[in-house]
Specification:
heterodimer, A: extended, B: alpha+beta, 3-stranded antiparallel beta sheet, 36% strand, globular
Chain lengths: 114, 164
Amino acid sequence: MIDKFEAYLPIKWLEDGLVVVFPVRKPKAHRVVKRPGTLRIALSTAALAIGVSTVSLAAEPAGVSNFRALELSVAARSDEHVVPPHYWDNLIAAMREAPRLPAQTTKSDPPAAF
Amino acid sequence: MLSPVPIGSLAAPERHLKRGATLKHDVHTWQETAVWHPEPDGRGLFLALGRKLNAVVLSHDCEIDKQKRLLAAPVLPMETITGDALEAVRNGKRYPFMPIPEIPGVLPESYVDLRGICFVERKLIDDASRLCSMSDDGIERLQAQLIAYFTHIPLSELRIPPTK
């Protein structure tokens, strides 16, 4: 449940399971050459891929701890150059209560410039 | 409003560049490759697709002097669109497009296309010519457009209680 701005911080995404991890998509091979022994190579590659995935997951906690560096220190919270306490809570609450503009169609939009 | 500014992004399919031989006069060569070849710092080069055109800087004034990269959006001439699109854009009916009136001798009737927002290196911004600047009213209009585009919330309806 995202009920406060703190819930939007990456550390909360990870702690509360708000992050959806998608499987890594490998680019399609341009050409597949079939020859004897391909199955064995494929199995070895799959095993290697599983190994890499495992290593990535195992390394994740170290990355998680780094997110704590994003939290504001007590000194920073009282600094007038950062948003005051409850600023984001109030803003998000106001946004939730605000009416929404109607959805629009993109049917007759001009083409993208690039 | 600046001109010309290179606005673009990576084009699909990805096309990476690998450093090749260095020629006379310290001219570098690059070879197109399907494999990603980053430099030791993790950054690499790839081909981007874009245009050099008028652009409006979106980064806040307070950020402009401090950042090496600024956000910019392309500004396109209104004459390139017709029919329903022209009517919708000219009358400010669509969130991604902000109409800009003609400024005689400076800018034809145009529109800001927020779909093309990208960051631009500060050096490229500095090298571009400054066509004109937005008034306070224009800046507020642009900010309202950005909020409408990204949130679909009408700025006039946003009631934020004062922070203590």
